[in-house]
Amino acid sequence: MKKLFISQPMKGKSDADILAERQKAIKSAEEKIGEPVEVIDSFFQEAPVDAKPLWFLGKSLELLAGADIAYFAKGWQDARGCKIENTCAIEYGIPVIEDYTAE
Asked: How many structural domains does the chain have?
């Protein structure tokens, strides 16, 4: 089973919205690759109170390193952390799925 890393814009979104978008990403990724995936949990609900954006990015890149495939959710190209994760995935040979769909 392939390990799936999900990159998604989170700024200004509720936990419920983020989790719902993750479910869509999982379904879409499984359809595209034709098999179930093991999701790498990159949604840090228990982050330190004073965590800065670079803390989240550092943790995300650490998790991305263990991925077999990376899914970039709608709007990723407008979020600086997602853009960095995308560049890293491509530069280090992790296959990517980029969602540009307008829903």
From this structure: 1
